[in-house]
Write a structure and sequence with these properties.
By secondary structure, the protein is α/β, with parallel strands linked by helices. The protein is 35% helix and 22% strand. The protein starts with a strand and ends with a helix.
Length: 188
Amino acid sequence: MKLIVGLGNPGEKYADTRHNIGFKVIDQLANQLAIPLDKRKFKAEYGIDNIEGKKVILCKPQTYMNLSGEAVRPLLDYYDIAIDNMLVIYDDLDIAPGKLRLRQKGSAGGHNGMKSIIYHVGSEQFKRLRFGIGRPSHPRMQVVDYVLARFLPDERPVIDASIEKAAKACEKWITTPFSEVMNEFNQS
């Protein structure tokens, strides 16, 4: 069984913000795979289905970003999912907008959602897909205001294309070794 988690904040207020890119990728993936996100339990919204003989859970924690681990840990425990079978998708300020970086493991890198997951699962040894959102171009703009702002109209084409690409990478991981997915999707 595989667990794919997209990080974000629940509610319309945050729906199209940079910080919710993980939710956007999960929504795209759920649409691609026709997996309804119809379960609400463990402080999460999620869906389960079999894809090519593999059981998959797509999850959007409903705890707000900084408490994401409170949703992830119970799902891992209840469904008895090994941490090696989890992939977390989240926004990254240090990567150019729309660029994707897949990694086998790593630190939180200052991301509070990842800090929470690392704390609750007790390890940094899980897969992640970092989705670049870049840094604020205006020197006086606070990072928190930037990540909670919506993408600009001229950014949308690149971001939308990358959301599709990220969802394809996640879908491929369901049946393909992660190293092969990294080789294919880290190149651009």
